[in-house]
Design goal:
Number of helices: 6
Number of strands: 4
Radius of gyration: 21 Å
Order of helices and strands: HEEEHEHHHH
Shape: flat
Distance between the termini: 69 Å
Helix content: 25-40%
Low-confidence stretches: none
Structural class: alpha+beta
Mean pLDDT: 87
Number of domains: 2
Largest sheet: 2 strands, antiparallel
Length: about 160
Amino acid sequence: MFAQRLGIRPKGDGENEMSLEFPNGSRIIGLPGNETTIRGFSAVALLLVDEASRVRDDLYRAIRPMLAVSQGALWLMSTPFGKRGFFWQAWQKGGPEWVRVRVPANECPRIARSFLEKERNEIGDHSFRQEYLCEFVDSVCGLFDRDLVERAITTEVKPLVFR
């Protein structure tokens, strides 16, 4: 455990099963992945959503109010999982308030190129690009690429009105 390697003896906070309380009083609390049972926390200093691309949109909407009082930070960490959901929206259209950090595996010196080549051969180009190159790729079951469909939509054409 990371805390123990730092010489900190963590202990549970006594209220939450998945939690750590540190000597300075700060806490790390693991919360359930269910929109109906996650509510109730407030004044959160840092809300970290791990594997954010896999978290449902309703759960994401349920956790955002936790930052209302504290004006705390929200971090979304994940590999992509298609061009859908709040993680993709935040990455693509979230605006300047989001700091985006992208580190594809081929830029990580700890990962051997030979491993990456084997992975690409084993899982295929589509999955490899998503899992290792941090690319938001289209679903393999769609008839048209999402980008093509979005480019075809316009607000410049007036809708037909039937009388």
